[in-house]
Design brief:
The chain has six helices and five strands, in the order βααβααβααββ. It has helices spanning about 5-15, 20-30, 40-55, 60-70, 80-90, 100-110; strands at about 1-5, 35-40, 75, 115, 130. Helix 1 packs across helix 2 (about 20-30), helix 1 (about 5-15) packs across helix 3 and helix 5 crosses helix 6 (about 100-110). The chain is globular.
């Protein structure tokens, strides 16, 4: 499995994003892998919320949401993942990771997922995560 981060998806759908070209290239590469591509419900929320905030176009955001929902598997956070994420978040000495980032870390740890498509280089500091840039 390969987990997709919000910044990867946002860059894919936004031609103005600095990472758009790389997101398109990476998307083509990922479609060639036998791995299942998934996102978390928290990631879907973040992509839709950020897209609406930045694009100011509800119709365009609805198209993005429909495309994501029809093409990717969405995994939903359970209580165990939520609590583990809260522990990660609350034990930080500074704010390197948002709570959603901590959800990603916890989910990947619990379900032994190693690969993350993200442009957030902070994930390079997490031992068991293979960051796909």
């Amino acid at each position: 499995m390969i987990l997709l981060d919000a910044n990867f998806l946002y860059a894919y759908y936004n031609k103005q994003d600095v990472h758009h070209k790389r997101a398109i290239e990476l998307s083509k590469e990922l479609k060639q892998t036998p791995d299942e591509l998934i996102i978390l419900d928290y990631i879907f929320d973040e992509v839709i919320s950020v897209s609406l905030n930045r694009l100011k176009n509800i119709n365009k955001v609805k198209i993005i949401g429909k495309d994501i929902l029809s093409s990717l598997g969405i995994s939903y956070i359970n209580e165990e993942t939520f609590q583990k994420a809260w522990n990660i978040f609350s034990n930080q000495s500074n704010t390197k990771f948002s709570f959603t980032d901590c959800i990603i870390i916890a989910f990947m740890n619990i379900y032994n997922i190693k690969n993350l498509a993200s442009f957030d280089k902070e994930f390079l500091n997490i031992k068991d995560i293979n960051l796909i840039l």
